[in-house]
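Please describe our next protein:
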Amino acid sequence: MLRAGALPAPVAILEERTVGPSLGQDSIRRGMLAIAFSALIVFVFMLVYYRLSGLIADVALGLNLLILLACMAAFGATLTLPGIAGIALTIGMAVDTNILIFERIREELRVGKTPRSAIDAGFTRALRTIIDTHLTVMVTAAILYNFGTGPVKGFAVSLFVGLAASLFTAYFFTRLLFDLIYQRQLKLQAISI
């Protein structure tokens, strides 16, 4: 019964290797280093290019990673290389979301809106695109989890949780920080973006 459909060709083993657990641990360590260095470069870029708004985005990105790692710890998930790839993709999408918001705010400022109305319009106009991109990738992650095997499921879980955290931090938490910094000023003349 098990051999039904098997090809009649013989299998010849040309090479066989045994890999110890230290190789996997080294790969995970290098993957975490790659994420740390890339996150550092992203943090510096956001600070230099967007100034105070970049600092707000960096704080939101840090919260995003904290939520992601906390959820993975709560699920009892093991950090694997595909999971690390999901985290790296989450960082990229979270930064992309903040850039989308900031560029919308800049567009509103160029049109001549006041800083407060530019912030409101920038967040409002970016929301539809943010939800669209995040939900599309989250549906894809759910499909990967449903039909994938072990490593693919690890990637899908870290990506799904990371995008849910990104949706919260990049839009709602970033907006809260903008409101705390800029809305309390009576005569807001300019914003650091």
